[in-house]
Write a structure and sequence with these properties.
The chain starts with a helix and ends with a helix. The protein is elongated and about 90 Å long. A hairpin with a 4-residue loop joins strand 1 (91-95) and strand 2 (100-103). The chain is of the alpha+beta class. The chain has 2 domains: 1-69, no CATH class; 72-176, Alpha-D-Glucose-1,6-Bisphosphate, Chain A, domain 4. The chain has helices spanning 3-22, 41-50, 57-62, 77-85, 155-179, 186-189; strands at 91-95, 100-103, 114-122, 132-141, 147-152.
């Protein structure tokens, strides 16, 4: 064998080694849960298309596809539900990419010496109980200068979390229903 051919083979093997080494392990590859998806490929295609997770070539050729819609934070059910739940409070800091909502000090007007501040941190985008870290701070002032700020744990955190999760669940169901399109194809239905 010539040196040129040996060099090409070695180069090819080295590149292949790097490519295979950079692949993720099978456990980390995102995908569907086998218990939730039908084993028949035709049924999976039908289910994915009905739920809006695929594309239809006939719609793309006709120009019916939306393409380019970017719904930003309104697609995240937890984010929307959190903002809707605390919409009566002024916001001090809102950072979608950082996953943090911090309200400003709020007083209901009945007692000017007491104020509350809420911090919501998103730990995941999934709608589940451990997805939110909510902190509630109370500020009690005897005078304008003399104030004491304390973090409280109690029923308000549980109520906020329950309200946010219930709204997020409703938003998630509405989004799923909105994306559902019945699929009929004679080739797949057989």
């Amino acid at each position: 064998m010539s040196n040129f051919l040996k060099t090409r083979i070695v180069t090819f093997l080295i590149i292949t080694l790097f490519i295979l080494n950079s692949c993720k392990s099978i456990e980390n590859i995102p995908g569907g849960d086998a218990r939730k998806n039908p084993p028949d490929p035709k049924a999976r295609v039908k289910k994915n298309l009905e739920e809006g997770r695929g594309f239809r070539l006939d719609n793309a050729l006709k120009g019916e596809g939306k393409g380019g819609d970017f719904v930003f934070a309104s697609a995240n059910e937890l984010w929307r539900a959190s903002l809707d739940t605390i919409d009566f409070m002024p916001l001090a800091s809102v950072n979608y990419s950082g996953g943090v909502i911090i309200t400003d000090w709020y007083s209901d007007g009945q007692n000017q010496e007491e104020s509350v501040k809420i911090s919501i941190r998103f730990l995941t985008n999934e709608v589940r109980t451990d997805a939110l870290d909510i902190k509630v701070f109370y500020k009690k002032c005897n005078q304008v200068i003399n104030c004491k700020v304390t973090q409280k744990k109690g029923p308000l955190i549980a109520e906020l979390k329950k309200e946010i999760l219930s709204k997020a669940t409703i938003y998630k169901k509405q989004n799923k229903d909105k994306n559902f399109k019945p699929y009929s194809n004679a080739a797949l239905d057989n």
